[in-house]
UniProtKB/TrEMBL annotation:
PROSITE patterns: RIBOSOMAL_L1. Belongs to the universal ribosomal protein uL1 family. It comes from Methylacidiphilum caldifontis. It comes from the Bacteria. Part of the 50S ribosomal subunit. PANTHER family: 54S RIBOSOMAL PROTEIN L1, MITOCHONDRIAL, LARGE RIBOSOMAL SUBUNIT PROTEIN UL1M. This is Large ribosomal subunit protein uL1. GO terms for biological process: regulation of translation; translation. Keywords: Repressor, Ribonucleoprotein, Ribosomal protein, RNA-binding, rRNA-binding, Translation regulation, tRNA-binding. It holds the Pfam family Ribosomal_L1. InterPro entries: Ribosom_uL1_bac-type, Ribosomal_uL1, Ribosomal_uL1-like, Ribosomal_uL1/biogenesis, Ribosomal_uL1_3-a/b-sand, Ribosomal_uL1_CS. Protein L1 is also a translational repressor protein, it controls the translation of the L11 operon by binding to its mRNA. Binds directly to 23S rRNA. The L1 stalk is quite mobile in the ribosome, and is involved in E site tRNA release. One of its GO terms (molecular function) is rRNA binding. GO terms for cellular component: large ribosomal subunit.
Length: 232
């Protein structure tokens, strides 16, 4: 049964040629032109990658520092103790703890967007893998969320560093800003996303890496792009 779309979505779809591959400038102009929701929607970048996520050496995961931020206020949790915990609190982490925070998460608390841990804390934080992993919140050295420099990591995520990770179907989504951003800011953010995902290509991946790419608002049809035209 076909999904029933809103009038706003259908009006937006009429403006977008479904099978056309747009330039980034054309796509951003379309995003500004299509009907908007009553809230400031996110601008999402979606890829289908030529990797096999079932193979451990073809997992695509990393972070990208968006030049103009994501427009999203993130809640940051830090698993640390001693001096590192004190520094995390001073740096503005929303919640800081070790055994107490681990216990709280085990009881169901996951009201945060980013989890950072010091390397010595990971011995116990690993026990939260089944809770944090499916939510994309598990600290990982590849995303800079397992680090001795918790202050630097907090500052980077506050400025607009976002994580990305390919899913089981080889799709990857990244938020690149808000609909209210100027086109120039969205252009720089989207190019930064493409560059970061390109650099994260596994060496074992063969063939065409970017199978497809599209941008969209939170609730809008997708606009197709060619990722290879955006790589320096």
């Amino acid at each position: 049964m076909a999904k029933k779309r809103s009038k706003r979505y259908r009006l937006a779809a009429e403006k977008i040629e479904r099978n056309k591959t747009y330039s980034l400038a054309e796509a951003l102009a379309l995003l500004k032109d299509i009907p908007k929701a009553k809230y400031d929607e996110s601008v999402d970048v979606a890829f289908h990658l030529g990797v096999d996520p079932k193979q451990s050496d073809q997992m695509v995961r990393g972070t990208v520092s968006l030049p103009h931020g994501s427009g999203k206020t993130v809640r940051i949790a830090v698993f640390a103790k001693g001096t590192a915990a004190d520094e995390a609190k001073e740096a503005g982490a929303d919640i800081v703890g070790y055994e107490d925070l681990i216990k709280k998460v085990q009881e169901g608390y996951t009201d945060f967007d980013i989890a950072i841990a010091t390397p010595d804390a990971m011995q116990e934080v690993r026990k939260l893998g089944k809770i944090l992993g499916p939510r994309g919140l598990m600290p990982n050295p590849r995303t800079g969320t397992v680090t001795e420099d918790v202050v630097g990591a907090i500052k980077e995520f506050r400025k607009g560093r976002v994580e990305f990770k390919v899913d089981k179907s080889a799709n990857l989504h990244v938020v690149a800003g808000k609909a209210s951003f100027k086109p120039e800011a969205l252009e720089e953010n989207i190019k930064a996303v493409v560059e970061a995902v390109a650099k994260a290509k596994p060496q074992s991946s063969k063939g065409k890496y970017f199978q497809s790419m599209a941008i969209s608002l939170s609730v809008s049809p997708s606009i197709r792009l060619d990722a290879y035209t955006l790589i320096k």
